[in-house]
Specification:
There is one protein chain. This protein is mainly beta. Helices cover 15% and strands 39% of the residues. The protein is built from three helices and twelve strands; from the N terminus they run βββαββββββββαβα. It has a twelve-stranded antiparallel β-barrel with strand order 1-2-3-4-5-6-7-8-9-10-11-12. A hairpin with a 7-residue loop joins strand 5 and strand 6. 28% of the residues are buried.
């Protein structure tokens, strides 16, 4: 696991764009304000691009890569076409499957299970329907939270850019593979639950 994932706080900034098909983010360390990771969707097919501008956007496949600013791969998040519920695969820097996300059918505000490579539940991502607020929980223990940071009404109304703050609880060890799955899940919230 890459050292950048050992931080407890991340600021995730979506690239601004009026008409954009790809999901691209920059991930910063809020303390140093340095970019620590980049999230890109490098290989979009023409049909996927077209469908991203329709009501079928949530059904389109995606393959998102998270890399260091120097280009070193940290993880990949992939999903095929989704008709009803999403199942997403997470691969490490060596393209080995390290986990999955399984969306829940009836959930208010959004919910999916975060699974390890053997498809055992590691934690659950739960959202609130009244706000952009998500929690990663294991039983009653909160492992991490994701909140949306508003950057001004004008910017939010006229672009599709979102900014988030990911906070991982200090109780999650710096080398715990759960961190990799939490970071991957944050990149999927918009694509799986909110679009």
């Amino acid at each position: 696991m890459h050292a950048a994932l050992q931080n407890n706080q991340f600021f995730v900034k979506e690239h601004v764009g009026l008409f954009k098909a790809a999901n691209n983010y920059d991930i910063f360390d809020p303390t140093s304000q340095q970019k620590v990771l980049e999230c890109r969707e490098p290989e979009l097919g023409i049909f996927t691009k077209v469908f991203r501008f329709t009501d079928y956007k949530r059904m389109t496949p995606f393959s998102v890569e998270i890399r260091t600013p120097e280009g070193q791969k940290v993880l990949t998040v992939k999903r095929g076409i989704s008709l009803i519920l999403s199942t997403v695969d997470v691969m490490d820097e060596n393209d080995r499957v390290v986990g999955h996300f399984s969306q829940k059918l009836f959930s208010i505000g959004g919910k999916f299970d975060v699974l390890d490579a053997q498809k055992q539940v590691v934690c659950t991502l739960r959202g609130k329907w009244t706000s952009w607020d998500f929690r990663f929980v294991r039983g009653e223990t909160e492992l991490a939270s994701v909140t949306k940071q508003w950057m001004g009404v004008g910017k939010e109304l006229f672009t599709s850019a979102d900014n988030y703050v990911l906070s991982i609880a200090p109780a999650v060890a710096a080398n715990d593979p759960t961190r990799l799955l939490i970071m991957a899940a944050v990149m999927c919230i918009d694509m799986v639950l909110k679009e």
